[in-house]
Structures are given as C-alpha cells and as structure tokens.
Amino acid sequence: MKKKQIITRRAAITTGMASLGALIIPGCKQPLPPNYGNILRMGDNFTYAAHRALLPGQSLAKEYRFSEISSMPATGTINPADTSKEYFSESYERLLSNGFDNWQLPVEGLVARPTSYSLNQLKSFAARTQITRHTCEEGWTAIAEWTGLPLGTLLEHAGIMPKARWVNFYSYDGWLDCIDLLDAFHPQTILAYGMNGKNLSIPHGAPLRLRLEKQIGFKSMKYLERIVISEEYIDPGDIGWAWYNGI
Ligand SMILES: Nc1nc2c(c(=O)[nH]1)N[C@H]1C(S)=C(S)[C@@H](COP(=O)(O)O)O[C@H]1N2
Ligand SMILES: [Mo]
C-alpha cells in the first residue's frame, strides 16, 4: 500500500522532549527521544508503575463500551500465507499450517536477556483488554476490543538497557517500523493476541500484532516477527511517513 506524507507533530514532540533533557541532533531535523536511562532517572522509584506515572504526554486514548464495538475491515496485508501475493512469506505459511505452535517472538538488541517468547509465554503475562478506536490514514475508523500484554512488561522482562532508545518491529510481510520509549511504555501499548474476545484472526495480524493507540493506524503492526531494541534509529527506508504520526 502506498503511504502518503503527512505533517508530523515535530514541534509538539520537541517541546515534550526538552523536559527530558533530550537532544536535537545537530544537522538532523529529527528530535532525539529519551533513552531508557533518561526515563529511569526521572524518578527515585525504578518501577514500571513509577515510570508510567512520571512520563509526560502519557494521556490515555479514549476507551469505549462493549456496545460501541463496530465492524472493522482488514487492510493492507490480509494473509502473508497467500502465495499469490507479493508479500507471501514461506515461514509464515509454515507457522500457520501448524496453528502457530512453533511461532516465537525474538526480543533482541539492547536487552540483558535476549529471549524468544512462545505465544503461551506471552499469554502468561498479566493481560490488558481495551476497547479503542482505530484510525486509518486512509480515512476510516473502527472500534474493537484488544487483549494482550503491555509492551513495557515484555521489555522489562527481557531487561531493556539504559542506552535503549528505539523499539523496532519486523513483520512477516516485510514491514519494519519503530516507536520511541514513551510510546513503548504507554500503558495502552500492547502486543495483542486477542480481538473481540477471540484469538486474533489472520486478516487482523495473527498471531500477534502491536496496538499503538496514540498513533495512526498503520503504526499498529500486524504479523509480528521480531522486536529489536536499539540506540540508533534504524531507517525503515522510504515508506513515505515520518516515524511519529500521533493522533
Ligand atoms: N504488517 C502489517 N501491519 C499493518 C498493515 C500491513 O499491511 N502489514 N497495515 C496497517 C494499516 S494501514 C492499518 S489501517 C492497520 C489495519 O489493521 P486491520 O487490518 O486489522 O484493520 O494495520 C496496520 N498494520
Ligand atoms: Mo491504515
């Protein structure tokens, strides 16, 4: 799918970052978000709950009632096991043929304990369920219920390091995208394996997708394959979008 350039909220983030002692890289238009060490130093109490309470710009996205759930179309990639599509993935096809029993999510890079998590392991962490509105850049919205584990829980389980600044996501249909740690530790940022009370379906990103409720729809990556924590910004190439697209 072709993505169009939209205006970033650069000014807004820059202001927010100033309070975190973050830098604007000279000669680079992009503001540098805080690393995990910056976030840790913001409080005396290094617990996840404390980070969350202290982080700026962490207002919650609106959550809806069960009766407000709408139908939701699946867009972009709708089945990476479809051999007729250019995004076909042989490894995804193999995992799907086995009901995702062998699926694992590696969490690598700047973590003390690089780990590959099975779906059952991910489901064993405390889950969060939220009914939120998805806003696609192509002009439609939909309300659905999502269940999964907070991304922050996983990052702390893997031992995210103080130098870490970016969380990069790779998907089976070949996408690469990143978020900063303010979004990564936002309480509504979850890795979802459930939708509307059922296992996440193939069109909606099975077995695991990101839900990033404060940014535009395409940032909620489906078909997660791998997570890499980095200090450097990993350029996803020309996807026609800035890395930050808040709503
Ligand atoms: N891996 C992957 N993630 C993706 C996409 C995709 O094509 N591939 N499409 C994005 C877009 S543009 C939107 S609007 C949402 C759509 O989610 P849905 O198909 O569950 O409605 O997923 C996003 N995440
Ligand atoms: Mo979208």
Describe this structure in words.
There is one protein chain. The protein is of the alpha+beta class and 247 residues long. It has a single domain (9-230), classed as Sulfite Oxidase, Chain A, domain 2. It is 19% helix and 23% strand. The protein has seven helices and ten strands. It has helices spanning 10-18, 36-40, 48-54, 90-97, 119-124, 151-158, 181-184, and strands at 104-109, 115-118, 128-135, 141-150, 166-171, 176-180, 190-195, 198-199, 209-211, 224-230. The strands form two sheets. A five-stranded mixed beta sheet has the order 2-1-10-5-6. Strands 3, 4, 7, 8 and 9 form a five-stranded antiparallel beta sheet that branches. The longest helix is centred in the N-terminal third of the chain and has 9 residues, at 10-18. The two termini are 20 Å apart. Mean pLDDT is 86; it is low at 1-26. The structure holds ligand MTE and molybdenum atom (MO). This is Molybdopterin-dependent oxidoreductase. InterPro entries: OxRdtase_Mopterin-bd_dom (IPR000572), OxRdtase_Mopterin-bd_sf (IPR036374). Residues 101-232 form the Oxidoreductase molybdopterin-binding domain.
What's the domain count?
Answer: 1
- Mean of pLDDT: 86
The CATH topology label is Sulfite Oxidase, Chain A, domain 2
- Estimated structural class: alpha+beta
The CATH class name reads Alpha Beta
Organism: Algoriphagus aquimarinus
InterPro entries: OxRdtase_Mopterin-bd_dom, OxRdtase_Mopterin-bd_sf
Pfam families: Oxidored_molyb
Domain Oxidoreductase molybdopterin-binding: 101-232
